[in-house]
Amino acid sequence: MFFTPVAPAVLRRTAYAPSLERFLDDTLLTARQKGYSIEQDDKTVTMSFDMPGVAKEQLSIGIEGSVVRIGSLEGAPRRYKAAYELPQDIDVAASDAKLENGVLTLKLTKKVPVSNVTQLAIN
């Protein structure tokens, strides 16, 4: 006697499936689909984040060298915490942040690298 399956067999997910799915989502989704975008030119880096329902008083933005940390404070309707490392240090005094219509936009000015080259005299 032969048995033929009528419906396709149900595959069991392994323990690694959630992390694999998250990895594929992170690599295949564009930054805009994830809720943020990063653009840069020679002098500035512009970062935009979707944060609907969060007031500017409920956000904390910290910059240390080339690392930008963004987080929501206690009492915010959404919890958000992320850190981004940029390729160059940021000039905090010349940078700007604004929250408008649920979109946080950071316009970060890159620091001009200072050359520490000393000329050596030839004898």
Automatic annotation (TrEMBL):
* Gene3D superfamilies in UniProt: 2.60.40.790
Location of the CS domain: 31-121
The SHSP domain, residue ranges: 27-123
Query: Which Pfam families does the UniProt record give?
Result: HSP20
Ranges in coiled-coil conformation: none
Under InterPro entries, the record lists: A-crystallin/Hsp20_dom, CS_dom, HSP20-like_chaperone
The record's PROSITE patterns line, in alphabetical order, gives:
CS (PS51203), SHSP (PS01031)
The UniProt similarity line reads: Belongs to the small heat shock protein (HSP20) family.
Q: What's the protein name? A: Hsp20 family protein
Please tell me the species this chain comes from: Rhodoferax sediminis
